[in-house]
């Protein structure tokens, strides 16, 4: 067969793979409905491991590498778990979701909102905002149902501006979602060989690529309100030698090309986003949950330790503890806490009563589905009761 015929054959195979993946997701949704009726847990990690082991054996017979299949099916299984969790919370898709996000189409917040809506079988009705505060205001005023905010990044850490805004809003955190962020250096087509003198990017993108940027000589790095703003600025300018930090999807949207890729200081760069709305949400018991709160302890030695001891006594898993200055009270701190627990859990309710009695201030921001999915690991046959 000639080269074009071989390429056509690959395209046909890829189409069948996509159709099979879509069919698999539909079956995963049917499984979610069955589990909801029987109050079954979303995950059966033992069965997942046995499934992966069988696939590796079958793949070996077909000449496929075991590590390749493991990476592939870990992604597929993660998609099934998150799809089932989303259905158990929301049910069948409502058609569209209105979500306020930072930046225009192509920004990382827009991409995260798009992924969140698609996982729920909904179309995204995105509303672009200039600032994080505008995102909150859009939801508070009823212009959108949801708002999405980046809250922490695996490279640059917590996004303090968002933490500070959460203290002053009556909105509830109702979901989280994660986005793999692969920063690229983007220029206008035809400008690939020009010497770059100015790079535009969102402050978080700049922070996450600090090591790469620090090694560039005679280059000015300027902040923009969002990654989409940076890409739009480069796309609309006729000035040679300017570039933007952005995503592959954004490059396609703004007709830009990448001259450098994978720029984040750490591999596997991810941003965690939270979704907020006016009403709180209910998380089914079979779905792992995360509860977020703010608290201020009394200004005395051991006050924070006493609060943490309460969590330990009630066997509550502390996921995150973040401190922020308390406005108007120099040298005093507010603490943002994430726990792996349902808000209605008796253990949490008992702990909350004790915390209210010994803290100056406490506010539950929301309880929502935990979207951290641990990768499926193969269990040796002699260790697996399902083998």
What does this structure look like?
There is one protein chain. Among the domains are: 3-90, Up-down Bundle (Chorismate Mutase Domain, subunit A), CATH 1.20.59; 184-260, 3-Layer(aba) Sandwich (D-Maltodextrin-Binding Protein, domain 2); 289-368, Alpha-Beta Plaits (2-Layer Sandwich), CATH 3.30.70.260. It has 12 helices and 15 strands. It has helices at 3-38, 45-61, 66-90, 108-119, 132-140, 160-166, 203-208, 210-214, 227-236, 248-254, 303-313, 346-358; strands at 96-102, 123-129, 146-153, 157-158, 172-180, 184-188, 198-201, 220-223, 242-246, 256-260, 270-277, 289-297, 318-325, 333-339, 359-369. The strands form 3 sheets. Strands 1, 2, 3, 4, 5 and 11 form a 6-stranded mixed beta sheet that branches. A hairpin with a 7-residue loop joins strand 13 and strand 14 (333-339). The protein is globular, with a radius of gyration of 23 Å. The model is unreliable at 381-387 (pLDDT under 50).
